[in-house]
Amino acid sequence: LRVFFGALANDPEDHDQGLEVARKRKSKRPESQARIQNISDDFSFLNKKVTRREAISTTGKVAIGAAAAIVLGGVAYAAYQPGLLTPSQPSSGHKVGDKIKIGLTISQSGILSPVADEFKTVYNYWKDQVNANGGFNLSKLGRKVPIDDLVIYDDKSDPTEAVNLYQRLLNVDKVDLVTSPDATFLVYAVAPTMEKAKIPMVANLSIPEPSNANITYTWFVASTAQGYTQPLIDFIKANSNTIKNVAIIYIQSDFPVKAAQYVNQQLSQAGFNIAMYSGYGFDANDFTNLISQAKAANADAFIAMTLVGDAFLLVKQSISAAFNPKVYWTLLAAQSASFIQAYGTEANGIVTMTNWAPKMNFPGGTKFISDLKQRLNSPNIDYLNDPLIYASMQVLQQAVEAVGDIDYEAINNQLGKGKFSTIIGDVQFQSQLNVGTPAVLGQWQQGATSFESVYPPKQATAQPVFPKPPF
Amino acid sequence: MATLEFLLQSLISGVLVGGLYALISLGLTILYGVARVLNIAHGDVIILGAYFGFYMFTLLGLNPLISVVLAFLVFSALGFGVHQSLFTRIMRRSDQESLVSNTLLITFALILIIEGAEALFFSTRIRDYQFLVTGINLFGVYIAPNMLVSFAISFVATLALYVVFKFTWLGRSFRSVMDDPLAAKIVGVNTDRIFLYCSVLGFALAGMAGVMASMIYATAPFVGLHYTIIAFVVVTIAGRGSIVGTWFAALILGLIQSLGVSFISSGLQDVLAYILLIAILIARPQGIFEKA
Questions:
Q1: Do B142 and A320 make contact, defined as CB atoms within 8 angstroms?
Q2: Which residue of A has its CA nearest to B148?
Q3: Would you tell me which of A275, A295, A367, B27 could form a disulfide with B205, CB atoms 3.0–4.6 Å apart?
Q4: Which of A55, A33, A56, A36 minimizes the C-alpha distance to A44?
């Protein structure tokens, strides 16, 4: 090693010292001596004096050779990978092989990672269900095509990484279909790539506001911030005789901010007293003071536009502070299995946003929940995200099967005009948004053993528990 | 709520959170302050400790107050292992100037290993449990008992370290190595052993902090950086290797954040921490509690 690194360092002294050490250590073995001598000869150039002219000439030749190799290699690679130099796949005439390749990213590290394992399980469950029936029924090809192992990358919860990985999925992995990453800000980052490639992407996500006009190939199965908070607003309005003061807090992230703004505006207009309206940062690690303020304001309804980790701390500290408003809402987290595992009966009566509750009885829902619980080895699932993921994949499959081939333009048109039967109801898009399955108000009931849809009454699976039982 | 009551609530919250910050920072104070090992994986070791607390509680039903003692032992062993396998080699090959950057690189690798292993073995799911959550009402001010416990543990740990540092031969050795490792070696201090003790203590305290944090915060892989940042802010405010300074710096940080959230803006918690950090770096780069 010393000989080798001596040579790398181009240091004759090191080289000689290295040889000396090697000679001493191996002196008793003649074959080693011979090998050492060979090495010594090989590296003898280190002791040779090199003129400046020779050095420049040699370096120049090496540089020209290397540049030529890089250019030739690059051209050859580009010829082999046309997607790198030319726009991606044409939107029709896509050749389907023996199996359909579907690609996506899941944030397996970074801030979004807590849901990664569960999401992966849902995607794979869906794939297995489809394959159990033979795969995608592509009528124009006259055959059923099973789905290959899903190509899943870790986008590290990073939009730049997500964009790079989706380009890789299209151009290097050459997937037949894609589905979305698992956060709205990642979908927004990736959407332009899909627009450019003219490949439709069904996202299992919500967006803060009604669709951006520039997006025509991304379809959102979940609702908007307005859509998800509307049942809460209507519920509070319906109970205006007992709810007077409202406290709203929100994490400073796009979706929660938009949700908070909308609720604030709607309830203010309806004459409620917005006794508190405060934002907090991503690294907030103490909610005691915010809870004290809400308590001091006699908040009848406490509306926390949370993400996930912050909701856990907020509820824990609300229990400590014996904070018991009549309505206690968290935007995210309360739907998840982790939350109910940690808080058990304390979650009883907490309300949250959802599209789905187990008793809503859409086709396939009962089987979905029992199968998934078994796969996750958990008494609960994520009642918001898991059904949305499954439903979005059902939408994609039905759109492709309606076209009968993987023709991106036709699939995109089909997504715009079709009606898709899913476990969350009939999904139908208008301006890229699902208007077929409106959001509902979800609530944990019966000692937090049952997740119910409680408002609006038309979609309710149980009467709301109101006021919320104390922690 | 009366303003006085609200002020009192803010002060108590700040002090209690500060107590946890102190425990989070003590390990780094020793490892970086004395041995100059810039362990940026400190927060991830804390997360490991939090997983330890979570599984001890949920699988074995073990009281976190027992887990915190076990964590001291288990994480001491981990610190011993990491020191012998990684830090000693780096220390042998580094001079005083390059040690910080070399350990920064190697502990960055440690972050990736710990986070990857956590995601693999514990899954990426958020883990949380309830222990001593029901609050104590003290004249209208609510105190979470779990915060109170973490404060007490932090206080005891700080006091114990202070006594060791100030009044024992071992502590004198620590201080001499902190001042000048070469001079300490010349006068007969076994610096290699002191460095080993630093790693052992640094990891043990991080493990304890993790168990305490698990009573209060939810645990997930990939959030260790949050704790690392808190620890660095506190150590910077305190000054290198100052045990009592770390305690007070943590309390100052907790109080400033709490009062800022209550009386300026709830969105400013992190901003205030960084403003304080920058102010200290400009005004007293050696920290508040270290002599210039």
A1: yes
A2: A320
A3: B27
A4: A36
CB A195 within 8 A of CB A425: no
- Considering CB atoms only, which of A252, A309, A337 is closest to B220? A309
pLDDT at B14: 92
Interface check B9 vs A, CB under 8 A: yes
What are the DSSP calls for B203-217, one per residue?
A: HHHHHHHHHHHHHHS
Alpha-carbon distance of A383 to A371, in angstroms, equals: 14
> What is the C-alpha separation between B153 and B145, in angstroms, rounded?
12
Q: Which residue has the higher pLDDT, B188 or B51?
A: B51
DSSP string computed for B10-74: HHHHHHHHHHHHHHHHHHHHHHHHTT----TTHHHHHHHHHHHHHHHHHHH---HHHHHHHHHHH
Evaluate whether A250 touches A256 at the Cβ level (below 8 Å). Answer: yes
Nearest alpha carbon to residue B41 among B103, B115, B104, B107:
B107
* Interface pTM, i.e. ipTM: 0.86
**Three-state secondary structure of chain A:** CHHHHHHHCCCHHHHHHHHHHHHHHHCCCHHHHHHHHHHHHHCHHHHCCCCHHHHHHHHHHHHHHHHHHHHHHHHHHHHHCHHHCCCCCCCCCCCCCCCECEEEEECCCCCCHHHHHHHHHHHHHHHHHHHHCCCEEECCCCEEECECCCEEEECCCCHHHHHHHHHHHHHCCCCCEEECCCCHHHHHHHHHHHHHHCCCEEECCCECCCCCCCCCCEEECCCEHHHHHHHHHHHHHHCCCCCCEEEEEEECCHHHHHHHHHHHHHHHHCCCEEEEEEEECCCCCCCHHHHHHHHHCCCCEEEEECCCHHHHHHHHHHHHCCCCCCEEEECCCCCCHHHHHHHHHHHCCCEEEECCCHHHCCCCHHHHHHHHHHHHCCCCCCCCHHHHHHHHHHHHHHHHHHHCCCCHHHHHHHHHHCEEEECCEEEEEECCEECCCCCEEEEEECCCCEEEEEECHHHCCCCCCCCCCCC
Helix/strand/coil for B219: strand
At A165-204, the pLDDT tens digits run 999 999 999 999 999 998 888 998 999 999 999 999 999 9
Query: Could you say which residues from 45 to 64 on chain B have a Cβ atom under 8 Å away from some Cβ of chain A?
Result: none
Whether residue A466 lies within 8 A of chain B, CB to CB, comes out as no
Q: For residue B286, give the DSSP letter.
A: T
CB contact under 8 A, A283 and B269: yes
Residues in chain A: 471
Q: How far is A78 from chain B (nearest CA, A)?
A: 33
Amino acid symbol at B258 = S
Give me the residue from B145, B229, B258 closest to A286, CB to CB: B258
Dihedral over alpha carbons A80, A86, A89, A93 (to 10 degrees)? -90
Other Cβ atoms less than 10 A from the Cβ of A419: the count is 11
Distance from CA of B171 to the nearest CA of A (A): 34
Judged by average pLDDT, the poorest of A69-78, A83-92, A262-271, A414-423 is A83-92
A439 in Cβ contact with A226 (< 8 Å)? no
What is the CA angle B204-B40-B210, rounded to 5? Answer: 35
Q: Is A116 touching B (CB cutoff 8 A)?
A: yes
pLDDT bucket at A308, cuts 50 / 70 / 90: confident
Evaluate the omega torsion of the peptide bond into residue A200 and state whether it is cis, within 30 degrees of 0: no
- DSSP conformational letter for B115: H
CB-CB contact of A231 with A248 (8 Å): no
Decide the pairing of beta strands A433-434 and A425-430: antiparallel
Q: What are the beta bridge partners of residue A145?
A: A136
Q: pLDDT tens digits for B96-154?
A: 778 888 888 889 999 999 988 888 888 888 888 989 988 888 887 888 999 999 999 99
